[in-house]
Amino acid sequence: MGVKRKITPGYVVSRLVVILLLITTAFPFLMLINMSLKPNVMITNDFLGLPNPVYWMNFSKALKFIFKPVLNSIYVCGISLFFIIIIVALSGYAFGRMEFKGRKVLYSLILAVMMIPYTLLIIPNFHIVKGLHIVDTFWALIIPYVAGQQVMGIILAESFFRELPGDIFEAARIDGAGEFGMFARIAMPLSKPILITVGITSVVAMYNDYIWPTIAITGGDNVKTFCQIVFNNAAGKGTNDMGLIAAAFIIGTIPLLIATASCLKYYVQGMMVGAVKG
């Protein structure tokens, strides 16, 4: 039999605080679900009341409303993620396992980029995409996302590759493997958790971004992203049906939930590796 825990006032208070925090965290999302199942008039007249009857029409209308913006967000995140992972893996390996002139200087510059607030880069980024004549195109989102999201990933990958046992690479080098061969056959398979961690954090940041798409995409709705469409409508720049907006938020969150849940095991491993080795 296990040792019976003694219930103390501190134990009770800590559990009550945890329960209170869980309720505080979950309540807004529960209210979002509640709103999505009610018509707009019922939300206005009885905000806290339960839906009676359940109004499923919000979801069918929301699916038509945000189907194209969600596809746009997935497309932008997919293309950006492809380039981010390639750059992070190659740069992290170069900084972590290779010796070359200027390595410390270049790595210090990457660290310095992290200290620059995101908002200070908005105006320079806009002038860059405007100069490239790609405003109101997907590339106006993809190029800045790739440039911005790779920084933290390079730092995590560099730390991971630097801490890998050198004997593995020495043995491969003795067997005749070149630098790229060691990268492709040894480093890449071992770096799956850290690269998935970088991928998830990057996708969540890009998918949920509202500020930059609002600045770079000002044309028609055909190229606007999910957050841009839904937040604009929630702010009153479109439909005022809050039940429809709530249902749109829920549907738009599903791709992120699927991506995160399918990679959760590797994400936790990557976070633990980064915490221990970083």
TrEMBL record:
One GO term describing the cellular component: plasma membrane
A Pfam family annotated for this UniProt entry: BPD_transp_1
Keyword annotations from UniProtKB, A to Z: Cell membrane, Membrane, Transmembrane, Transmembrane helix, Transport
Domain ABC transmembrane type-1, chain residue ranges per copy: 70-263
Transmembrane intervals: 12-33, 73-93, 105-126, 138-161, 182-207, 244-268
Subcellular location per the Swiss-Prot or TrEMBL entry: Cell membrane
Topology versus the membrane: Multi-pass membrane protein
Domain of life: Bacteria
Protein name as catalogued: Carbohydrate ABC transporter permease
GO annotation terms (biological process): transmembrane transport
UniProt main location, coarse: membrane
Family affiliation: Belongs to the binding-protein-dependent transport system permease family.
InterPro entries (alphabetical): MetI-like (IPR000515), MetI-like_sf (IPR035906)
